[in-house]
C-alpha cells in the first residue's frame, strides 16, 4: 500500500437487488456488504461467476444505483448525492472492463477514444493540447504514437486493453475498478497487462478494486483479498495470510480448487462442495453458505454471521476461530 491506512472508499450495508419483473420477486445481487478500500492499495474481489462481484464493483462507483446502504468516497456519501452533486466526483472513479473490444467504440479512432473523457470534462484548452495529452497516455500504456489514428479492430486484444486503461487513467482518478481485465486475454499477454497495471499504480498513485476469479492472478496483483459468495462478503484478509491460512470455509474451498503441479497431492486433499449454489432469488436463512458448508451447525441456519474482526482480518463465519482450515 502506498499510503498508511488512508480510507478512500467505504461501503456500509451496501445492498443491490434487481427486480425480475414478477411481482415481489427480486434477485439479491449484493447483500449488506461492509468494505473499506485504502488509498494506494489493490483490493481484490474474488468469487465464482455470479457471486455479485461485478455488481458490487459497479455499485461502489455508482455505475449502478444502490438499493440500500451507503458508499462513502473520501468521507462523502455518494449514494445520497444527486447527479449534479456527484458529477465532480464521477471523474475520480473509473473502470476498466473485461472485454476490451466491447468497451471501445469500433467507429472511433484511438485518439478520440482516449480524448473523450478529457473532452467531457474540458481538461485541455485546445484540440492540440488534448492530442498531446492523448500521446502521453498512449506512451504511459505502451501504445506507439504512430497508432494514434487507428481503429480498435486494428489492435490486438492486449493492445485494446491498454487503450482501455489509458482511457481510465486519463482523468487521473483516485480509484479504478478493474473488472476481470485480463480474463479475455491470452495467458502470455495477461502478465504484461498485470505488470502495466502495477507500474501505473506506482507512477500515478492509483488505487484498484480488482475483480477476478483466477486466484493465481489475484495472488500476483492484490494487497488484500475480499472473498464473496452469493452477494455477501465471506472474508477480507491481507493476501499472504489468506493464502497461508483461510479463515472461511468457502475461501478454503476456492484455494483448494487451484490446480496443483502434483496431481496426487490434489487428489489427496481436494474438497468437493456438496449441494447446489442457492438461488439469489431465495437466499437461505442464516449463513448463505450453509447449504454447501461441511461445518454447518444449527446456529448457521438460525443466525447470519456478521463480518467481524479476527486478528487483523475480517471474517463472516460463526466457527472461524475453531476451524483449522488449510491453504
Ligand atoms: Fe459454515 Fe456456519 Fe461458518 Fe457459514 S457460519 S461458513 S455455515 S460454519
Describe the protein's architecture and organization.
The chain is of the alpha/beta class and 327 residues long. Helices cover 32% and strands 22% of the residues. The protein contains 11 helices and 12 strands. It has helices spanning 53-60, 83-90, 110-120, 127-141, 157-169, 187-204, 215-221, 239-244, 249-256, 263-269, 298-302; strands at 7-19, 26-38, 42-46, 68-73, 76-77, 93-96, 175-179, 207-212, 224-229, 232-238, 308-310, 313-315. The strands form 2 sheets. It has an 8-stranded mixed β-sheet, with helices on both faces. It has a 4-stranded antiparallel β-sheet with strand order 2-1-4-5. A hairpin with a 6-residue loop joins β1 and β2. α4 packs across α5 (157-169). The longest helix has 18 residues, at 187-204. The protein is globular and about 65 Å long. The mean pLDDT is 92. It binds iron/sulfur cluster. Iron/sulfur cluster is lined by residues 248-249, 287, 289-290, 293, 295-296, 300, 305, 317-319.
